[in-house]
Write a structure and sequence with these properties.
By secondary structure, the chain is an alpha/beta fold. The protein has two domains: 229 residues, no CATH class; 125 residues, no CATH class. It has an eight-stranded mixed beta sheet with strand order 3-2-4-5-6-7-1-8, sandwiched between helices. Helix 2 packs parallel to helix 3. It is globular.
């Protein structure tokens, strides 16, 4: 049973109220470390920081509207070899949490001693757009505008069509949807670890609180709204990339830098096929192929690279948009991978990152699945 508590927002300052909570987690030794976005000294970006000194919690900026890297990737690097040996709270956006869940299923990350704190997420800007934003406004300004229903066309494409802007699986949720942000936020503990955090902070928790009920009603309305937005988005995408000629044109600017592969949190292979000796060819083979065709694109196999990667991770694509953000040539990877991923996920009735109990489609076989194939 989920329990909830209220985090009072003092003087309407959301960031400082959240930072005080994070500092309390360390001061009261509820946890020994916190992985959280910290404001960069330059003031124009945030970077993930692993904090053990409570004083550094004051530099946290959890709701800064920018995501330079998907935190699921960071947890993977931290815990792939061994689990965390200290109690560590991790503050993550919904897409980051979903990526982490998929990585755990793929045995690329471990959750031992991790306390997952998820946030309701109104979206983020690209790193370059955040620089312009940070010069004039704060994360508090962003939150108050976002949850007042004001649409922001500057948000990353992934954020504008995000299917789940609220956490699906977490220990403790910092709830903003449906709340009066000038007064307080709702903290929702859905696991024993989450309840442990509330108890350690000395917050009074209750079941079926008015704030929790109010948030759930608002969440249902938000998800329904996002569903309609995504349907229109996919309709446009099908028109733009339908057919091999259009798809090839979209991928035309690709230089095969593979930034998208590196940035993707669920592209997890330790050794990628596309950087293996398979693609290390002698000059005569390139020249021989060019002679047969008359001309050959260089670098080679750009379309093959994307189609192979799409096939590999479509079931686990969480739509974070990290691939598109990493592309130096602005290829609209999000729309292509999301359309493909969503269709694959619907086929198997699978929602990536929803639960650790849901089996990955590529690893599970059901005798009755796909029976319709071949039917007349």
């Amino acid at each position: 049973m989920t329990k909830s508590a209220t985090l009072t927002v003092k003087d309407g300052k959301i960031r400082s109220s959240i930072n005080a909570l994070l500092k309390d987690l360390l001061d009261k030794q509820v946890v020994e470390a916190i992985l959280v976005p910290l404001a960069h000294p330059a003031g124009n970006n945030v970077v993930q920081g692993l904090v053990t000194n409570p004083e550094y919690a004051e530099q946290a900026d959890v709701f800064a509207p920018v995501m330079p890297v998907n935190t699921g990737r960071i947890i993977q690097a931290m815990t792939r070899l061994t689990p965390a040996n200290k109690k560590t709270a991790v503050v993550m956006r919904p897409c980051e949490l979903r990526a982490l869940v998929e990585l755990v299923k793929l045995r690329q990350a471990q959750l031992d001693n991790l306390y997952l704190i998820g946030i309701d997420c109104p979206g983020a800007y690209s790193v370059s757009d955040y620089v312009k934003f940070a010069a004039e406004k704060t994360s508090d300004d962003f939150l108050k505008a976002a949850w007042n229903g004001k649409e922001d066309p500057m948000l990353r494409a992934a954020c504008q069509v995000c299917e789940y802007p609220v956490p699906l699986m977490t220990d403790l949720t910092v709830g903003l949807v449906g709340q009066d942000l000038g007064k307080g936020l709702v903290l929702l503990a859905s696991t024993e670890k989450g309840k442990e955090l509330l108890e350690g902070l000395g917050l009074t928790a209750e079941e079926d609180s008015q704030a929790a009920t109010q948030r759930q009603t608002a969440v249902d309305q938000l998800l329904d709204k996002m569903k309609g937005i995504r349907e229109k988005f996919f309709e446009r995408t099908k028109e733009e990339i339908g057919g091999i000629d259009k798809l090839a044109a979209v991928f035309g600017p690709c230089i095969k830098c593979q930034n998208c592969r590196v940035a993707c949190p669920v592209c997890y292979c330790r050794e990628c096929f596309f950087i293996s000796p398979t693609f290390e060819l002698e000059a005569e083979k390139y020249l021989g192929a060019a002679e047969k065709k008359g001309a050959m694109r260089m670098p080679t196999d750009t379309l093959l690279f994307h189609l192979t990667r799409m096939t590999h991770m479509a079931a686990s694509c969480i739509g974070c948009g990290a691939c598109e953000e990493a592309c130096p040539n602005d290829i609209p990877l999000l729309k292509i991978f999301q359309l493909t991923g969503t269709n694959v996920q619907k086929l198997f009735d699978y929602i990536p990152g929803r639960s650790l109990e849901d089996e990955l489609p590529p690893t599970a076989f059901k005798e009755e699945e796909l029976e319709w194939i071949g039917e007349k």
